[in-house]
Amino acid sequence: MQSLDRTHEPELRSWVPNSEPGSDFPIQNLPFGRYRSRERATPRIAVAIGNFVLDLHDAAMGGAFGSTCADLIVASDGNLRHLMAAPRDTVRELRHALSVVLSEGHAKQGVLERCLVPTGSVEMLIPTRPPDYTDFFSSIHHARNAGEIRRPGNPLLPNFHHLPVAYHGRPSTVRCSGDSFERPWGQLLPQGEGAPVHSRTQWLDFECEVAVWVGQPNRWGQPIELADAEQHIFGLGLLNDWSARDLQMWETQPLGPFLSKNFLTTVSPWIVTLDALAPFRVRAAARAPGTPALLAYLEDEVDKRSGGIDLKLSVLLESSTMRQSGTGPEVLSEPNLRDQYWTIAQMVAHHTVNGCEMLAGDLLGTGTVSGPSPSELGCLLEMNKCGQVPIRLANGESRMWLEDGDRVILKGRCERDGFVPISFGESSAIVADAEARE
Length: 438
Ligand code: MN
What we know:
19% of the residues lie in helices and 25% in strands.
């Protein structure tokens, strides 16, 4: 667990315009990402501050940092994975250095002003192409709501209380926010029919999740202990695990998700470090009385006390009708990461208990984040009770599943009295009009 330090002080202000408290990227945030611009086609690593990106290579060459940080940035050569692989203490040193030089009144302001690029003029890239991707199933509310469909009255399988369930996803189709994609083709069994058909999915869904980006790797054969797990996490982002429910229902008998999930996973471009999230740590969600005891490798007092993160997520839907009429997107749901049943450290400890090697830049999805109330459901499957209850939208439209033209936007924000709020930016993609081309 990381304690609070001067980078979290609420009085701290930056000289960069539009970085005041209330903005997405104040000086207390400093998330890492990768961009390219019209003037500079090769990717560069950057931090977000106000409505600018600070080019870290230019800042390092301008003498903004000490040699450890400067060498690390220059050696990264636009590859964020290189920075992610560094020990957390080194990344923390860089965060501290950034906080100092971006603070009001710093002598380097003149040099660093030339390293800022307006966010609106750059293309944000995927933070890194993840070497591997695992998606968990760590919300008890999501597990209950989804399990109720297949096992009414008995939604949770016996292992749920004992380990964070997961499946191995496919890194090749993890892409950065901003895509347009057509509803995927696959095999599905129409209701009441005896044989499957080859069709575009009719039950396209989103899953609101948090992206956990692995930092310093472990060695093959050496499990990461729960107490050390956060030393191996670089930071968090937003993740949409797009899901074709009709394909999923038919193919996941008896194994896990396959083609119903691996056509696209969308992540946000900025990675908020665990250090930036220190003020927003909360107790891990309580386990109900009578819940079976955990095995020792999944239990740790510090993780119980501060393994949760108070991160309020928002899922917004913008239909083509909303775009045309200018009404703007509608909020469908507002789940919070603090309600997850398994902590991030528990996911890492379990993932490596068999000696599995985690690589820098690996991506872990938390699984759909859902809370206890109807306004905190992280996917349509839960909202529409598996295709039975359509969702009424404020503009008179309704939705069972996503339709062509729909854009789904995920957002995330941490707030706590006495601290400056920080945001995750957004992750979005749009379902293209497939029929128009057929
Ligand atoms: Mn998922």
